[in-house]
Amino acid sequence: MVLFLQILLEFQNRIIADALSSRIRTASTGGAVAKVSMTIADFDGVMYNVQNPDEENPNVITVSLKHDSFHQFEEHGATAYLQDTYGGLMIAAEDGYDVTLQVDVSALAGSPEEIIFKVASLKRNLFAAVFNKYFQLQASGTAPADGTPTVIKHRPTETMYISAHKDRVTVIFSTIFSDEDDVVFGRLFLQEFAEARARNQAAPQVLFSIKDPPVEIQGQPTALTGDNVGYVTFVLFPRHINAKCADNSIDLVHTFRNYLHYHLKCSKAYLHSRMRKTTSDMLKVLNRAKPQTNTKERKTVSGRSFMRK
Q1: C-alpha closest to that of 126 among 299, 255, 308
Q2: Is the CATH code 3.30.1460.20 the one for domain 14-266?
Q3: Each residue of 69-102: pLDDT tens digit?
Q4: Is 306 helix (H, G, I), strand (E, B) or coil?
Q5: Which residues, other chains included, contact 122 with Cβ-Cβ below 8 Å and sequence gap of 6+?
Q6: What residues contact 93, with CB distance under 8 A and at least 6 apart?
Q7: At what angle are helices 113-120 and 78-86 packed, to 10 degrees?
Q8: Domain ranges of the chain
Q9: Within its chain, how far is the Cα of 233 from the centroid?
Q10: In what order do the strands lie in the sheet with 205-210?
């Protein structure tokens, strides 16, 4: 039996949130804000740079994001979407990065949690630009009849496909399993998602396939095949992408690939720990089963000494 412990990954970057929170607390009490210069690696090959570039005013902190496939997001209005989301926080991008936000921690009086959360969710909002475009396309009734998918290469060897149809939005993730064990674990894990809809009809439909891509993307040059290639398809209906549920759907779906691989690693670590414990217990049993050597000296009737083996 494989135990899958369901843990949802945070979609905001905790390191950025903590860096901003500590400096906002310092600034609010009149203290000197500490110098910060961090390069942070996130999921999906995303890189962040957090610093206070003006030495004379360390209260001003910039957060920059770099994504190797940013140009693909930009084709779907990512820059305009981020500008609408962040307003005056968004400035000209730092050299070598795609997006830069600027926060004056001394000017965030009262409850700055909302600003911290928004800045730490920069990568999430980059993905949201594409999702919202297709959610609105489906809701408007102008989705193309063939549901032509858009391709976002969000990792060097893995791709996301999203398409709008008259009655649904389809999101497909490709993923590469690093070894044969991951294929077995992944199949079990995804089978649970596929069967969950039988218990909850309100859940989105989840389909998966190993080796071959789904029909929707067959013929796409980026659609890989192979024994270690998997595809996960989410079918989102209007009830999942309406104004009330859209944000939650984006939060959960865009992190699913990382969620899947995180739980595969956790499951393997759990099984390895159980195997080590079982092996240790068996060794204890074997050690107790060894015959005890009695070396006590004994004597015969005649008084001669001997050692019983």
Answers
A1: 255
A2: yes
A3: 999 999 999 999 999 999 999 999 999 999 999 9
A4: strand
A5: 13, 16, 48, 63, 65, 82, 99, 101
A6: 64, 99, 100
A7: 170
A8: 14-266
A9: 16
A10: 150-155, 158-164, 169-176, 229-236, 205-210
